[in-house]
Amino acid sequence: MPHIYTWDVDRWTQPSGVTGLNAGAGLGMGLAMGQGLDRGLQFGDGLFETMRLNAKGESPLMPLHQGRLKKGLAVLGFSPDAITTVERAMSKLSDITLAHLSTHTSSPITPTSAHNQPQAVDCRPDDGGVCSGVKIIVTRGNSTQGYGAIEGIRPNIYAVTFEAPELNPAPALINVGVNPVTLGEQPLLAGLKHLNRIEQVLARQKFQPEWSESIMLNQKSQIVEGCMSNIFVNIDNQWLTPPMDNAGVDGVVRQWLLSMVDKISVEVIPLKELASAQAICFSNSLSGFREVQALDGQSLLMNTDVTDWQMHYKSLFDEC
Description:
Elements lengths: L2 E6 L2 E3 L9 H9 L5 E2 H5 L2 E8 L8 H14 L4 H12 L2 H11 L27 E8 L2 E2 L12 E8 L8 E12 L14 H8 L7 E6 L4 E4 L3 E6 L2 E4 L10 H9 L3 E3 L10 E8 L3 E8 L2 E2 L4 H15 L2
Parallel strand pairs: 8-9, 8-15, 12-13
Antiparallel strand pairs: 1-2, 1-7, 3-6, 4-5, 5-7, 9-10, 11-12, 11-14, 14-15, 15-16
Helix pairs in contact: 3-4
């Protein structure tokens, strides 16, 4: 069951009774508090990060999440004080992620007497543990009307903890297609995980029943990403992934993989080159890697590289 929290001065707080299906209503109440409405609700003026957690309630890729979030805050023009507030909230995430694990594991997490550090709990479901995640939403704050924000506006910061899907040692096999919704280009926002997700909402509506993902193109018929993932395409035994210069989200798993593997080339991939693709996979922080078994009904080969990547990614969460 998800739990929602808000950042209040120097600590995370949870509105009374706000869990599960009530979480949306509770968040709506929070959005309407203060002077005016939350600018994230009004304008999509903010950013978010979705993180998979290990058995200690920590994200092994936290530095990458923090780096992307901090970059996004700077690009959106958040004040230094606001950025400091967000960094403080991020540093205290363990206060709520450990509480979530304690609620959902058979063995409650308690501090040890020697070092006051939480005891490790195995997050593998077959051992009685739980796989979990946390979503952080940062908005510029509250305002009445108009795009301009007042000086000294205080950011609103929300967190939602949830049960994540089990992370399998082998990549899931999925069917995908090319989405008819194309992505607009905005270099200022490219790479960021901002709150303006209406293109993805429209794209998700176009999924065929058999699709688990879709390939998103720009208006030049070039591949950008998946609807909810980054994409890697193997052509002539060379792995390619599109640049994030004009559109798309620079995913943390994508960043991690590019730092680990030399044989992936970042380059433009025209749609027509998909006809020569030998293998395709998608990545995101919750699932790791998913491999395409069929593209618009056309079968593709499986590639052992993707299995290796998934095993390596899973090991990040097994090592506590």
